[in-house]
UniProtKB/TrEMBL annotation:
Keywords: DNA-binding, Transcription, Transcription regulation. It comes from Stenotrophobium rhamnosiphilum. This is AsnC family transcriptional regulator. GO terms for biological process: response to amino acid. One of its GO terms (molecular function) is sequence-specific DNA binding. The keyword Transcription regulation applies. Residues 1-62 form the HTH asnC-type domain. InterPro entries: AsnC-type_HTH_dom, Dimeric_a/b-barrel, Tscrpt_reg_AsnC-like, Tscrpt_reg_AsnC/Lrp_C, WH-like_DNA-bd_sf, WH_DNA-bd_sf. The lineage of its organism: Bacteria, Pseudomonadati, Pseudomonadota, Gammaproteobacteria, Nevskiales. One of its GO terms (cellular component) is cytosol.
Length: 150
């Protein structure tokens, strides 16, 4: 990946709807080489997709919770079963395997604290090998970005 590829990625990352023409102007290449580079970046997996960023609050999803999960066991089967189940819960936006006192950190987005309580009771405590939960509710969002430092 060269400097031009990185410039293209920066442009697409900031606006997935940007035209090939505008990218071409920005990187000083004609349309065809830019299109080929984007195609190559997509096929190589550097570009995973193009997304529309939606304001969660516009959908009434006012509360963000960071849930630290401890499992009852940490063998490979338990981890795979837990991770598979987490992927099927739409309120869980992100899931990270962690070192330290808990095994996983989940980012959960819900309309309200009551909505989070329902997610706990109906979904989280029923995850395979669930043992313990610690929840931290975000007061406000200072910075949120999916833009990578290219």
């Amino acid at each position: 990946m060269d400097a031009v590829d990185r410039a293209i990625l920066r442009l697409l990352q900031s606006d997935a709807t940007i035209s090939i023409e505008k990218i071409s102007q920005a990187v000083s290449l004609s349309h065809t080489p830019v299109w080929r580079r984007i195609d190559r970046l997509e096929k190589s997996g550097a570009i995973l997709g193009r997304f529309c960023k939606i304001d969660r609050k516009a959908l009434g999803l006012e509360v963000t919770v960071f849930a630290s999960i401890k499992l009852s066991r940490q063998d490979e089967t338990a981890l795979v079963e837990f991770e598979t189940a987490v992927r099927n819960i739409p309120e869980i936006m992100d899931c990270y395997s962690m070192t330290g006192s808990h095994d996983y950190l989940l980012k959960v987005v819900v309309p309200s604290v009551e909505g989070y309580e329902a997610v706990i009771k109906k979904k989280i405590v029923h995850l395979p090998h669930f043992r313990d939960l610690r929840s931290d509710i975000a007061l406000r969002e200072i910075k949120q970005t999916d833009a990578l430092p290219i």
